[in-house]
Amino acid sequence: MASKYTEDELNKCSKKVLISLFLAMQEQMEQLNRNMELLTEQVAIANQKRFGRSSEKLEIDGQLSMKECFNEAELTADTALIISEPEMEEVCPHPYRRKKHKGKREEDLHDIETEAVPHELSEEQLTELFGKDGWKRLPDEVYKRLTFTPASFKVEEHHVAVYAGKDDQTIIRADRPMDLLRNSIATPSL
């Protein structure tokens, strides 16, 4: 590797030294350009070997092209016998969909025995998370699950406690059991 010259060193050099340095740099630049051209050519050859020409584009005499293979019936069909297709009619522009009315789940479950299952955090856990008196309780998150014991059903109404820090930055819910299907009343007992 050639040494680097500062501006002061170059100002002190004679004209012959500067010319020889310039010529050496020109030769070095030409060599770098040749190397770059060789590398570009090698990359192009490697890409051509790797990706190659697509076989679908290759035209060989006597061989069917992809277009002819898939449209063989249309190519061999007698054009005199072609019958025009009738125009398409739109039979039903908008399919009928029933709207889901709210409150159906409560309506279905209101006759079944309900058992409340609370999920709360202990005072120690709350103190550890928020500090002493650094939390307030928000309204519980309530969801229902339908459990089945032979010959009877029972609704479990889970009340998950929700707590918020008095700094209004943190909200924490109590641990709740894993669900088979979230937001569904289905349970493994069903």
Tell me what the structure shows.
With 190 residues, this protein is of the alpha+beta class. It has helices at residues 7-12, 15-51, 66-70, 72-76, 104-109, 123-130, and strands at residues 114-119, 135-149, 152-165, 171-173. Among the domains are: 14-49; 104-173, no CATH class. Strands 1, 2, 3 and 4 form a 4-stranded mixed beta sheet that branches. The chain is flat, with a radius of gyration of 41 Å. The two termini are 79 Å apart. The relative contact order is 0.08. The model has no long low-confidence stretch (mean pLDDT 79).
Topology of helices and strands:
Blueprint: H1 7-12, H2 15-51, H3 66-70, H4 72-76, H5 104-109, E1 114-119, H6 123-130, E2 135-149, E3 152-165, E4 171-173
Parallel strand pairs: 1-3
Antiparallel strand pairs: 2-3, 3-4
Quick description:
With 190 residues, the protein is an alpha+beta fold. The protein is built from six helices and four strands, in the order H-H-H-H-H-E-H-E-E-E.
Name some characteristics of this structure.
190 residues; alpha+beta; four-stranded mixed beta sheet; 6 helices
